[in-house]
Amino acid sequence: MAKKKQHKSTIGIVLYSVPRYSETFFRNKIKGLQENGFEVILFVDYFNKDDINFPCKIVAASVFNEGKLKTIINSLFALLKAVFVNPKRSLKLFQLDKKDGVALKKRVKNLILNQFFLNENIDWLHFGFGMLAIDRENVAQVMNAKMAVSFRGFDLYLSPLRHKDCYKSLFTKKVKYHVLSQEMKQTLIDYEISKDTIKVITPAIDVTFFQTQNKNREDSAVIQLVSVARLHWKKGLEYSLEALKCLKLAGVKFQYTIIGEGAQLERLVFAAHQLEIEENVTFTGALSHDDVKSQLEQADIYLQYSIQEGFCNAVIEAQAMGLLTVVSDAEGLSENVLNNETGWVVPKRSPELLAHKIIEVINLSPEEKNKIRVRAIARVKEEFNLKKQKQAFVDFYKKD
After folding, report:
1. Does the entry feature the keyword Transferase, yes or no (predicted)?
2. Which of 2, 182, 207, 393 qualifies as a FRET site for 284, CA 20 to 30 Å off?
3. Does domain 10-60+120-204+386-398 have CATH number 3.40.50.2000?
4. Residue 1 in this model has a pLDDT that exceeds 70
């Protein structure tokens, strides 16, 4: 008797756009799933011709923001698909939205905007960010798929402040959640989400790339500090600059390099000027992975004094490179760095405390510093490697 062909599970991943080369989290996740026998379909809101060679099937939403005429044409085309191509699924989506109390006009809009999902047959529909599930809470059920949602720091902690009750409908649905830290898991539990539906999978890095031969490095005469961060208020860079002003007043010689770009550049440059440390601070802009590694290789201390932070890959990379790492206690950072074991955790929004901690770290003996470095490197290799993360996502979909 011929063996029955085994079903190959298909994961639909929903993102804003096709991940760029530098967006390693989603690229590694997709690659890991494919290596473990899953089919992957990527659903995106935005698509361009450069994405055509991405190594999985891409299904892109119709364009509704390029002029009134094109919007009308695409809307009519979507409605025709709803009636003649996907009538059963479209009717079910319309009815489920009605059951949720969605107004008629919004139901029609949801039907048009979400039509691009309905041609596909999948086992899981996984929204890569919480906000991507808004107005799509019933799409997975319509597709006869299980629903998953990933939360990162910004969309779990900040989006509800900007969009009040944005997850009210989502949190009533049958969903399996992925978060980056135990702190984030507890936040979802506080929303009365069952802990059994929440899986913590931390970020991971290529530990074969982010490694250093200089594990017993000696501090420079001028202490080299570095941060890798988007220039956004949530990264707390202004507090870092205020702490470094305290260092300067204490007579500590230092150079601080900030790697990253963003809308707050002018504000931060001006803050460094007002604090009279502009000669001690360098803004490099965005750098390649190789150049980031080179900067980390030359640094003594890594700072990540964020106000809000889900977990932060850059902190893992710094520890892997043997840097003495000082972070705030924002969300997942105190799980990323173990205080007094693999680095140091300082209460956020307290630049004086940060300055005191940096001075304390500088004054540690070489033996004490190296103990911290060795423990940090070993923990990153054990806990935050790509192999472990890929297997965790395989288990996420298989163990339901």
Report:
1. yes
2. 207
3. yes
4. no
